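Practice problem: predict the structure.
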Amino acid sequence: MRRGCFIFLLGSFLLSCSYRELAAVSLDGKPLYALSREAALGRARLSDFKTFEYVPENPLPLYGTESLEIQYRLDLENPGGENLREESALILSSLESEFRLVLSAGEGSWVLPLSAAFLGRPGLSFSGIRYAVPLGSGELTKITLTLEAKDSGGARRGSSGGGNSSSGSPGGGNSSGGNSSGGNSRGAPDEIVFALESFKIAPLWYGVSLSGETLDATPFVYAEGDSLVIEVPEAYRPGGNYELAAGGLSGAGEFFIAGERYTYLGLPDGGDFLALPPGLLPAGPFPLGFRGKAASLEYRPGAERKFPLEAVVIDPGLILNYPRENWRNRDYEIFQWDRFPEILIFDTADYAVQDRLFKRLAFFVEKIGFRGRLAPDSEIAELHGWNAHDYRSEDLARFFDLARKNRFPLNQDEKDLENLLLARNILRENAAGDVLPGTGAIISISRESANYLRATFLAHESFHGLFFINEEFRDFSRQRWAGLDPAGKRFIVSYFEYSGYDSADQYLMINEFMAYCLQQSVSQAGEYFGKTLPSRIAEHPWRRSSLPEEDSGTWPRLASLFTAEAEAFSRFVREHFGLSAGRIQRIYKARQE
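Answer:
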């Protein structure tokens, strides 16, 4: 009887002595309790490091879509307390050959990086590390941090980590060992201090960012030569919409995604940011990465964009190979130029869809004999519109305002277009119901065009878009038009009339002159203007008078004049936009060998 009472009293004593203190850090703003004084403080010299254990106030449900983000610092201090950050990078990199800092949470244990050695940059200095590990599903009931000597038989690097093992880094490692009961930090240097700064639940992502004072990273990312690579094992791959984003890009490079390659051309000034949207990426796109100079590479949740009001943000070069099966509407997809968000780009399933959207606009804005009036379907049904389109906000406003005032019967696609443009502020509406110009422009191409024509049309229409939104570009184009040799001007105006443009609209003539000069590379301009275009109108005897002297089926003077114009325009767009004649994209899908 007495023995039983003693056992009961001893159990009560032990329970009353168990340590549980509100930690200095929280978990997403919610209380987190430390199970030791050292853990409550969240700071210790590595030579004195003991296991830090934390429990939330209540178990946290997990759904397999979350990361646990831990932020911490490792400071090297001299006896006077001065932080020697630049020296600490190499010292910490060396320390990783002897010790592991292990985080256990959710379904796994993970080796945390002490330096940037796993990225092939052991000397890189930063003020702190923010590391995000996948949590899996179930419940989060405890978080544990343990420092272990590598010869202690404790945590092991997982073969699935994807890290660069030759660097000695734990940055990609999944530890299958776990929690040795008090840690093992014998031999850790006295001058290195570990400081825990925060825990946070974040959306699941993978990658690395070196662009700020804090190193942001996750497991399964590593350096391989001059490449950053993300290779996530199937068990840890997220579902849903994910994009691949890279920042701090400098110079040319290459993206590689599950065996496909995308050539990145870069911008002259560097510091570029580029995202490959979810609809472009295949399912299970690993390994993926970037070969070249990049400050960040992230496989992360993409924004959920609702059709039609929210466009897919993209570089135009990626539109040409964007999978049609991933369109949000079977008839057309709407894109937004990532560098120039005022410009919307429509890609239509065929010319019939494109005509329903834009054909009446084409006649209203540009066609000789129709400009400025709303033509009924019966009048234009048998006439050709364009195979690609471009419209500024001013012309769009005139079209839709006149349709309202005249109660003109627009088709459903045109009505949908008006609502979209109003929602995107390309058009505005005043209190009286008048439609007014907003900011921006729209352009369109079609999947019915042959691939080589789609690329040409996209360049042509994209430069129209830039012309619409950039006053300096319009001024430069006016100057080139004013100084154009009379023989060249006679020819190009005659050609535009032959194509159906209203040559009385000088704004239209200047705009088309610019776009025709820029739609192909400078090297192709001589053939295009010196043979292809003049040969079309040479078949019409009454237009031959607009052509200069012919030389065996070519017009050398036109070739020379328009090559010079293409060079001038290409130089302008290169200096102002980082583009060139025939190239509006900074990335394109490389041909498979």
